[in-house]
Amino acid sequence: MRLRLIAFSVFCTALAACGARGPVALNAVPAAFGVGTQDAWMSPAARNSDLLYIATGDNAYVVTYPGGKRVGALGLKFAASLCTDRSGNVFFPVRTVVEYQHGNLRPSRILDTDNLIAVSCAVDRTTNNLAVMCWSSGASVVLLYPNEQTPPIAYWTGFDAVGQGGYDDKGNLFVDGNDSVAELPKGSDTFTYYPLDYRFDAYGAIQWDGKYMTITRPSHHEIYRIDFSGSSLKIVGTTHLHDWHNPYNGSYPFVQTWIQGATFIGQVSTKAAVGLWPYPEGHDRQKTISGFRPGDDVNVYGVAVSLAKR
């Protein structure tokens, strides 16, 4: 399938609903998302520590990594499928995209997605390009911000509802649809599509583990290491996790996880808690980080590691 690559200005005209270009005012995020509320605080020590950001629906918590000591909360609601860049900046899709510098309490900027609904994001560590997966009326779009700068370039994905995405070590972007994974090779304007069979869940997390692209299967508590070649994909390794909680229902918000070196990070069965498992060995978790507000509406919708500058 040939991808329609369109300049962002043309894309806005087609929507007939263009807003401001580039970063927008901090008050542009609706109050319902909680930016700058009384639930927000940050320890000065956070800036000097490696951090784990955890979005639970009611708030976005910040803990030291891997220690798990609470050092802040952003007061940010309804965030899911976070991402970080090589400088430690953290991006929260909350319809638009809110960016925080490492260990900072207030957002540094808010990226305009021009009325598209941002549902996930990924950063290319080779170029610092930011890809934001968005939903529109009857179609899905990837907004690519070259070197994290505006204006972005919009790419039609070919999916009715795009899911999560991730970059490999060569700058190729992989995004998940409900029945296939689409690859946008670096420098290309054409997606390659890899059909998914019965072994995969729709909208699994996609991430580079240092050697392979990985796709999670939440319903079976498994992580698949994938080799992409030609027009097919091959599972070359599987990791099974004990007690990885499964809120998977095949729809948004997705089940987001994170691989940080030799550690897999995801939600444990107590819902409002995060587990650290050895990767790729899997099986039993090594650590649990808990203490978040409990409740039936609280799940771990997003996790991302942000490394302090050395």
Can you describe what's shown?
Helix content is 3%, strand content 39%. The N and C termini lie far apart (44 Å). It is globular, with a radius of gyration of 18 Å. The strands form six sheets. Strands 1-14-13-12-11 form a five-stranded antiparallel β-sheet. It has a five-stranded antiparallel β-sheet with strand order 2-10-9-8-7, with no helix packed on it. Strands 3-6-5-4-27 form a five-stranded antiparallel β-sheet, with no helix packed on it. Strand 12 (130-136) and strand 13 (139-145) form a beta hairpin. By secondary structure, the protein is mostly beta strands. It has one helix and 27 strands.
Spell out the CATH superfamily.
TolB, C-terminal domain
Summarize the biggest pleated sheet: 5 strands, antiparallel
The number of helical segments is 1
CATH architecture annotation name: 6 Propeller
Outline type: globular
Let me know the number of strands.
Answer: 27
Number of domains: 1
Distance between the termini: 44 Å
Strand numbers in spatial order across the main sheet = 1-14-13-12-11
**H/E element sequence:** EHEEEEEEEEEEEEEEEEEEEEEEEEEE
The residue ranges in which pLDDT falls below 50 over 5 or more consecutive positions are 1-27
User: What is the averaged pLDDT score?
Assistant: 86
CATH topology: Neuraminidase
Return Rg in Å.
18 Å
Level-1 CATH class name: Mainly Beta
Helix proportion range: under 10%
